[in-house]
Specification:
Blueprint lengths: L2 E4 L3 H11 L8 E4 L11 H9 L8 E4 L2 H9 L3 E5 L5 H6 L4 E3 L11 H18 L1 H13 L11 E7 L4 E5 L12 H13 L5 E8 L9 H8 L2 E11 L5 E5 H4 L7
Bound molecules: tetrahydrodeoxyuridine (THU).
Tetrahydrodeoxyuridine binds next to helix 7.
């Protein structure tokens, strides 16, 4: 199933389609900007597209060359392919792409949903291996080994990348007085602040644990991270045991931020 979701109004969309010479019947649904109250970067247009295709948001995959569009895809909980015609792969990833390709010609051929999913997994793995994502996950995993967790035996490592490209590390440090325990994400936050000062901005965070399911930052850590992050902070959660990697934009993990 294939849909177009464009911020343009229908008239502009139809003239663009005429330019391309593509048959509009290729698409099972077309949603234009004038059909939603909030346009991209709100996820509304992709939620509407998924609904029209009778798909859940999670089984919908968005292809975008625009940063606002990737933010919208992630806001709608869809997976996202970044096409690097207008922006660099790093810019696309930092706006929420799960993987980046130069054009659809680089995607590969498929004839079933299973083939398609195999290709997607491979593209994600290639992207992780060749970009800051792999480095950040690796650094979080190494930092996990330094955790002091004699009470819970649950070790956590975190690595934060800032907008200046700095990488800062933290691990959990427990205490016999349990409430004095500090989480890995807090350690990495303090290290980033101490190095780059109060105007620091976080672009990406990796968290590594040994649990079967990758563990997300706790609610207190999310609130702490929010002080130095935009909704587009990219979060990668990794299990060093199962090698499972989950990817979220921060706005998904903390939709309503408390601010003063
Ligand atoms: N922990 C973290 O390091 N980060 C979180 O976001 C959740 C919990 C640590 C704290 C404690 O040492 C152990 O995990 C079990 O709660």
């Amino acid at each position: 199933k294939l849909a177009v979701a464009t911020s343009s109004d229908r008239k502009k969309f139809l003239s663009s389609m005429a330019e391309t010479g593509l048959d509009i019947n290729l698409f099972d649904a077309v949603i234009c900007g004038d059909e939603v109250v909030q346009t991209k970067p709100s996820g509304d247009i992709y939620r509407y597209a998924a609904a029209k295709l009778c798909l859940s948001y999670e089984e919908t995959i968005v292809a975008e060359d625009a940063l606002n569009g990737l933010s919208a895809a992630r806001d709608a909980s869809c997976s996202a392919i970044g096409i690097s015609t207008s922006f660099s792969p790093e810019e696309l990833l930092l706006s929420g792409a799960d993987f980046v390709i130069p054009s659809f010609e680089n995607f590969g051929d498929f004839s079933s949903v299973e083939d398609f999913n195999v290709l997607v997994e491979k593209k994600i793995q290639d992207t992780v291996d060749s970009t800051f994502i792999g480095k950040l996950v690796d650094e979080a995993s190494k930092t996990m080994l330094k955790a002091y967790a004699p009470y819970s035996k649950f070790r956590v490592g975190a690595a934060i990348m800032t907008d200046k490209g700095g990488i800062y590390h933290g691990c959990n440090v427990e205490n016999a007085s349990f409430g004095a325990t500090r989480c890995a994400e807090q350690g990495a936050t303090l290290a980033a602040l101490a190095s780059e000062g109060p105007s620091v901005r976080f672009k990406a965070l990796a968290v590594a644990t040994e649990s079967d399911e990758p563990a997300p930052p706790c609610a207190i850590c999310r609130q702490i991270l929010s002080e130095f992050s935009n909704p587009d902070l990219q979060i990668y959660l990794y299990s060093i045991k199962t090698k499972k990697l989950l990817h979220y934009s921060f706005s998904k993990l903390l939709p309503k931020v408390f601010i003063l």
